[in-house]
Amino acid sequence: MKVTKAVRSKARTLKKQAYILYLASRDKRTPWYAKAFILAVAGYALSPVDLIPDFIPVLGYLDDLIILPACLLIAVKMIPANIYEDCKIRAEMHSA
After folding, report:
1. Which residue range forms the structural domain that includes residue 36?
2. pLDDT tens-digit profile of 11-23?
3. At the N or C end, where does the chain have fewer CB atoms within 10 A?
4. pLDDT class for 4, splitting at 50, 70, 90?
């Protein structure tokens, strides 16, 4: 299966976003509820238990394609903008 440039770009963006959220979860200024939500999303993403089992055709990958990105977006919205920007700058400095 050939991976397109768009898919690679999305994967890099998702990896960067995950690192930003990691940095935000370690920041003392981040509210406790945002840290708890980030931890819950990370736990769900790494857990072998899925909301919708993967063996169900098409629907099985819904959590990977829709639910997890939506939860990441919610987590980003929970983090104050100034903290998010600081973490984004730190992530860019780390990847450079």
Report:
1. 28-95
2. 788 888 889 999 9
3. N
4. confident
